[in-house]
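Teaching assistant here, posting this on the class forum so everyone can see the example we discussed in section. The complex has two components, and the goal was to see what a joint structure prediction looks like when all of them are supplied at once.
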Amino acid sequence: MSKRIPWTLIIFLAALTIPWLGSRYYTFLSTQIVILSLFAVSYNLLLGSTGLVSFGHAAYFGLGSYACGLLMKELSIPFPIALLAGGLMGAAFAAVAGYFCVRLTKIYFSMLTLAFAQIMWAICFQWNEVTGGDQGVSGIPYPELGWMSSIPGLDGFRIGDYFYIMTLAICIVCIWILQRITNSPFGRLLTTIRENPERASFIGVNVHAYELAAFVIAGGFAGISGALFGIFNRGVFADFMFWPKSAEVLIMTILGGMNHFWGPVVGTIMMVVLNQQITSYTEYWPMVLGIILLVLLFVFPGGLVGAVDAGLKRVTGRAGGRGDA
Amino acid sequence: MLEIRNVTKTFGGFTAVSDVSLTVDKGQIAAVIGPNGAGKSTFFNLITGALRPDTGSITLNGADITGIAAHKICGAGMGRSFQRTNIFPKLTVFENVQAAYIAHRGRGHNFWSPAESFYRDETEALLRSIGLWDQRGTIGGIMSYGNQKQLELGLALASDPALLLLDEPTAGMSANETHDAIRLLEKIAGERHLTLLFTEHDMEVVFSIAQKIAVLHQGRKIAEGKPEEVRADPEVRRIYLGHH
């Protein structure tokens, strides 16, 4: 939308160069960033577009990873089908929880999303026969990726690089779909709900139905990112669904800037890189990370992308532009 | 066109609107007046479905709209504006009106095409007719109060209503703004053959454009008729115009 720069393509091509750096560590880090970026972008359909603060988005991420991991491990279902099942799992449970949550507003909505997420977490944590309880599901098989070496230009990479390239392709397509949705008439009406729900209903928007649709779409894409993360992590654990994970996606999104489509991606990069860097310096990393986040959020209330955008506007004196969110 | 029959609404033990009936004909400009606390806002909320009457019924063009859901109102042919301005403050003027077109014409289930290409011509025409075309790129929330009221009127008009309900359209406006707003309303009502029903506290406004006036007092309708009849009504003079 803004200025006709094909950002999605540019970001895809830039991210695609990572395996050529030849570092196992960079590929590992990038895979994590790509998967969590999809998670954060899906979350921003709720937070940035619709103005809904969910405290339970990790539940759908976790359910997606359980569904995909268990299908691949226990039933030997091929990866593409298991991946889709992960997305459907996230969407289906988001539909059930969302049906009740959208009937509430503001903090009451947030609290109910948290309550549902904690219930789902508790079930996965206790249900030993299926989810492995606190042991989780380990030994999830890697998808068959040998065929990728026959693609011209892609021969001779490690399996982790192939997984990264495939993950990147899947996540970029999903993010592109989410971008189309954000900029569609449906997405525009979501922003009217964010801006003024009462007025939105008086221009003919069925507020509950639209909020529920956004909740289900966000849950579905969270499920897909969770499915990929389970494979990447070679295991699925109830921790994926616990509330700190929901807080993390909220922080990543705000840190990057929820008013911009690519804000959550920038926030994810910041969070993952900071996390890695600080962990290697000090064992008190949660405290250091917390202080850095506090300062960043205080100095850049519109997120990093918001700050850059405001800076550019000041330099160019451009008025009226609003980014592509 | 709009027929309100014997509606009553009580909150706890307090009767806010008591057995009020009112008919508005097609093309008519009608006003509901009354002192503060007379039940005007409640009466309005009953018509727009924000509240459901305890008894009585409301029909629009013969269809029962008693207690209708808010998002179905504009489909039924009714547009409304609010006493406090009610726009989408962080969207541009253009995006505000464009969103209203998208919603009213049922295109919100389109998840794929770019929203910015929808109803551009309709939006332009409407913004020109309400005098906001020059400000199309401005963020709605930073405009002057009078401009925001204009934009709000635009949102209501995007649903091509046959009946427009305006809750205190000139509340909080300066004398100049009030004058302009009334001129604009008259022009648009004429162009679009609209039926208007509004509440208003400014008597000059009411008597300058209303063709029919209903007076509420303590939840009851105490008078109804042409402006000159209402002005001459002794009870109206006593409880209402006397203070003015």
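For the discussion questions: Chain B has nine helices and ten strands. The first helix of chain B runs from residue 40 to 47. Think about how each of these relates to the inputs above.
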